[in-house]
Description:
Elements (H helix, E strand, L loop, with lengths): L113 E6 L7 H17 L4 E2 L14 E6 L2 H14 L4 E6 L5 H5 L4 E3 L8 H4 L2
Antiparallel strand pairs: 1-3, 1-4, 2-3, 4-5
Amino acid sequence: MQAEPPDAPTPVPLPALPSLEVHSSLAGTAPTAIIAPSSSPVPSPYPPYPHLLSSYQHLPPLPDEQSAVDGSSYINPPRPHLSEYYSHFPSPTFTTGTVPSQIIPGVERPLAAWDVHIYFPPPHENATEALYARHLWERIRYEFPELRIYRIWEHPMGPHPLPMFEVNIFTPLQFGAFVPWLVVNRGPLSVLIHPNTDKGAVWDHSVGGCWLGEKKKINFGVFEAH
């Protein structure tokens, strides 16, 4: 285990969760269902980030039992239904508004919840990787026709430092299917996956974004100019 740097800040202890009496039939076992999360706001111990457990502090403590299947993973209390995030992206990810044409020339369209930018070198620098990108673009259109996909740009444009093409994702179901597939099939290409939020394009493409492969340098000045 890597030692903690000597100047690291002391972790802030989380407040203890209130204990609730568990029905005798459930003693020593996980609750049969989790009731609806509470909507009562709780001050965060780690501002500016919201309290991650504020909606669950009214529930019994999590059980310490471990699974008999592998002997190491924890048994979680079941829910009466799947988390809402299987069907809705968490706030502040949103799908309203438009992408200004100044950022992507000639394009003005509704925002997706997530954008996927797939980069490749100019054809004259690496014809093989450029061909891979072309075939990947075609394969995505065959494999995921429900996704929104745009033209292949064979030169840098907007904030993007290399040729690329873009795929839009609108639902968690699409995200869960497409992103793992892309991890396996992106080949030598770099990929930026970022949300569209009310935090602004710079945050979305930097703090909020994640990379597959080598990270490329985004031209944030394009966003700041608009």
